[in-house]
Amino acid sequence: MRENHNCRDQAAHGFDSSDDSAPFVCARRGLQFPFESAPTRSGINAPANKKVVLSILSGPSKGESHTLSKPRVVLGRKGADVALSDPEISRHHCLLEVRDTYIHVKDMDSTNGTFYEEERVRAAMLRDGTEFRIGGSLIRVNFQKK
Q1: Cβ contacts of residue 8 below 8 Å, gap of 6+?
Q2: DSSP secondary structure, 107-135, as one string
Q3: CB proximity list for 83: less than 8 A, separation 6 or greater
């Protein structure tokens, strides 16, 4: 049975939008973290023995893969760190922060939103093999050995 959980309800998680150091944690299937134990921004780092690869599964850029060159990147259209040719994606659509064994994805107030498990989210925690959607593009994240 699927849990009825609204990840957009930040107050339910104790998230204070004025405190930019506290990440919004969606404790759904991607990763299960109590809010109090979520890592802070200082924990942003790429794993030493793995690379992070984004695979585009559907949309105009279907078949492309992008290896992240740094632990903090912006996905969007032309001019973003990782640019996709999807007209439904904002120029600076979402931020990905690699945190050793998972990725924190944060929507950057995009027009069409960021979706995780078919639900529009402001932020989510993604583990190896997790998929999310921006615009018409379905994206899978993978940690691969270097």
Answers
A1: 119, 120, 121, 122
A2: E-S-SS-EEETTEEESEEEE-TT-EEEET
A3: 76, 77
Nearest CA-CA partner of 75 in 88, 125, 11: 88
Q: How many Cα atoms occupy the beta-carbon half-sphere of 69 within 13 Å?
A: 5
Which residue(s) pair with 33 in the sheet? none
Give the separation between CA 107 and CA 19, rounded to whole angstroms: 16
Flag whether pLDDT at 30 surpasses 50. Answer: no
pLDDT, averaged across the chain = 79
| Residue 14 confidence class, pLDDT cut points 50, 70, 90 | very low
pTM over 0.70: yes
Q: What are the backbone angles phi and psi of residue 41, rounded to the nearest 5°?
A: -60, -25
Residue 105, pLDDT > 80, answer yes
- In sequence order, which ranges of the chain are alpha helices (DSSP H)? none
